[in-house]
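Homework help board

Subject: predicted structure for assignment chain

Our instructor gave us this sequence and asked us to write out the predicted structure in token form, then describe one feature. I got the tokens but I'm not sure how to describe them. Can anyone check?
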Amino acid sequence: MKTKHFFAITLIGFSLTPATIFAQLVEGQPKNETQLAARRENFPANTNLPSLFLIGDSTVRNGRGDGGGGQWGWGDQLAPLFDTSRVNVVNRALGGTTARTYYRDFWPKTLALMKPGDVVIMQFGTNGGQINDASRARGEIHGLGDETQDITNLVTKKFETVHTFGWYELQLVAEARAKGVTPIICSLIPRNSWRDGKVPRPGADSPATWAAQAAQSAHAPFIDLYEIVARQYDSLGEAKVKELFVANAGPHTSLAGAQTNAICVVAGLKALKENPLAKFFSKNAANVQPADLSNADSISTLQVAEDERPVVAASKVAVEKIGNAALPTFHIVGDSTVKSGGVNGMVGWGERLKPFFDPEKINVINHAIGGRSARTYFTEGRWAKVAAQIKPGDFVIIQFGHNDQGRIGDPANKGRADGKGIGDETVEDTKSDGSKELVHTFGWYMGAFAAEAKAKGATVIVSSPIPHKDRWEKGRDFEVLAGWDAAVAKKNNALFLDLTLVVTDTYKKIGRESVAALFADKGTHTTDAGAQTNALCVVGGLKSLKGNPLGIFFSEKGMAVEVYAPAK
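My token output:
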């Protein structure tokens, strides 16, 4: 069975349930009770292999790890994302524990199973309570300091010195390292709690913050699982997130919730500067891209490569030639949303634009090619070939963005990701063949295109991308990227076409069901009808530009298109 690619819950904005995403991602799940029982064993299956140990509370391992009462911890859904023929995944978490009680009662037995080369991920903070009461007596002193409180424990009837939350985590880190084990600290997962349509973020006096502080103090790897998961929940919305929990407020997740959080853990691991587990991921995790928390506005925590966006072989794309060199030419530059060639029913808007222009007045040449970002269009020399054809009086429209996002250096991005922003910052990317590439920002590449075309006497139009099938309903798709496009246009004295907004307003007019029929895949590429709809949007948007520079070149069909006016 071939592993299927799946789509990010948030980056693209598709309305897929987490259970569906996990099912599409993972193959080789246990098929019978014997296999499930083996999965639940909380000791290394093969002592000759390195082991990944998980410690924490019921949000990591609930009960026996068998879904009792419909409750699952994310640790019990992590094994399919690792190659268990090369690494043991040992879930030693225990429900009801805190950093204090786990360290006191269960850590010695777990530590005894560990050997040099192993890794332990720890996640505590869900459970709290009183430091000393007759019910559980499991709370810690707040913070990270050395404060202590001596008590006679009302539950155990024994003398005990209670420390801070951070002290226990630092002890776990130190004792793991002393045994040659790599510790990774995780913040807790969020509950099903909402404020103003979003999951509330933890304050300074919270276990999530103390965990981060402990990791910083110990120079240990840290996964901000709370924030990674919270961004997923924010994107899904309260109604869908409710399905991820067994009880209304949580904290216990359903199977779908545990699967969602397991994927988030892998995304967090992949984002670490030094990931000791990188070589042990299974092919099921190959398309999970690193969580990106660098941008406060980013929700791309589960960025995943799309199988609908392959890098099209240039030999399969016909090169369009200028018909009449004496006429001005309208050059179209972009990715597969501009030119798909009808593959799998996908057509780009640039392929349906010619009928709107008079061929006796202007040439319309579509230079777009699928799978390219602004970066790869530049590095492959494609822009250089376009620039060589530009002459005074020509027009150039440039639209990239669908393939530009992601993490530089991640193989899943196929060398397409560029830097954020419009500045001159660069990042050195080491390719699989050992060669190095100096990667610029998205705006740098777009600015290079615009500047060269302007220098050759062309009118340049910088366009934001067409929106995805579902994201237009939930908010502003490509908001940050469109801002960069606008800034590039202003800097280079070019025109800016907010095509994202033009198409979004059209989609809102025709409604969800009609929009769904305009897409040939799960949300990026349009059908022929979708391409024609978007071509109309392009023409209407072009007419709205200052001075309507292409107005004299429209055909009768083009002149009949209404000028775009923003929705009120």
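Reply (TA_rk): Your tokens look well-formed. For the description, you could write something like this. The chain has 18 helices and 14 strands. That's the kind of observation they're looking for.
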